[in-house]
Amino acid sequence: MAENKKAQTNGTKLVPGKGRMPYPAYRGSEPYIFVSYSHRDSALVFMEIERLNKLGYHVWYDEGISPGNEWTQEIAQALEHCSMFVVFFTPNSAESDNVQNEIDFCLNEKKPCLGVYLKQTNLQGRTKLRFGMKQAILKYNMTEEEYVFKLVGALEQLGMKVADKVDVSSTINKTSAQENKLKKNKKIMIAALSVGGVIILCVSLALSGVFS
Fold first, then answer.
1. Alpha carbon distance 194, 107 (integer Å)
2. pLDDT value at position 208?
3. Tell me, what's the pLDDT at 148?
4. Do 58 and 13 meet the contact criterion of CB atoms below 8 Å apart?
5. I need a surface site. Which of 76, 87, 90, 156 has the fewest CB within 10 A?
6. In Å, what is the CA distance from 7 to each residue of 4, 12, 40, 156?
7. Residue 142 three-state SS
8. Kind of pairing, strands 33-36 and 19-20?
């Protein structure tokens, strides 16, 4: 399994305007999650795909389509064989016809479904009608710890098992440590800018003769 993990980190590419792919889409016989999202949210969703991988799940997403393959055919095949369907909702994905088609397909096939709201989003039309009552996670309204435990719990409840045993608490702690470091660096930067602003102000006042 370690070799599979290593293989998944190779062959990634930089998607212009979207960021680097977390890892190639899963291609194998083990259970996997199909991720549905708007390409406008690629940078945001790529982080979530990487999170799922670190938590031990296999994930397929459409950046993994091979050159020369029929786009809709490969998406349909990936949907047909997936064990779990996860859609990342944002205002962009709520307006995406491709996302709606993928939702329709998975519901018609009676696939286990989970909606993750990365941003506050109002579903409209048949998306609201068909997916509104499905299990959902409001990530934008949760702490990191609440979100990860809710996500893993929902996936397990819907029958999606991890490919590798992963210490969820360790994953949360690492993520929290990174977030705390970013917050600390931000505070230091703000403080430095504030001090710098005071110095500049004093120099400007001195030059203007206020302190003369």
1. 54
2. 59
3. 95
4. no
5. 156
6. 5, 10, 27, 25
7. coil
8. unpaired
pLDDT at 8 over 70: no
DSSP assignment of 61-92, as one string? -GGGPPTTS-HHHHHHHHHHH-SEEEEEE-HH
Strands across the sheet with 136-138, in order? 59-60, 33-36, 84-89, 113-117, 136-138
Question: From residue 124, how far is each of 13, 88, 94, 116, 131 by CA, in Å?
Answer: 34, 15, 7, 16, 10
Amino acid in the structure at residue 12: T
The answer to whether 32 and 58 are in contact (CB under 8 A) is yes
* Identity of residue 169: S
171 three-class SS: helix
Please give the Cα distance from 55 to 49 (Å, whole number): 10
